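step=predict obj=Flagellar hook-basal body complex protein FliE n=108
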Amino acid sequence: MSDPASLVSNAAVRGAYRTSQSLTGQKAQGVEAEVSAEDFTAMVRNATQASLETVRSGEATAEAALRGEADTQQVVEAMLAMESTVKVAVSVRDRFVEAYQEILRMPI
């Protein structure tokens, strides 16, 4: 999950396209909008699970290195994967918070 593009699935792209169509005045059907929300939820859930797995794998590699069972190169690769995963997760979190704050500022 070190690549930010891995966070985006085809379903999420289709959902974003449908959302952009609704914003431009074209109507999306209710069922499609519901499916889009489920796809987004699934995408976020899968990305979160993949992030956690990467972090857990990195921690396991570091523990193995402390026991003398892993090579230094493996530890460096695992730590780099963890670092990029955490950076992407923090970036996504910041975007979610920013979007939430923007919604709160919208007049009713």
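step=describe
The mean pLDDT is 80.
step=end
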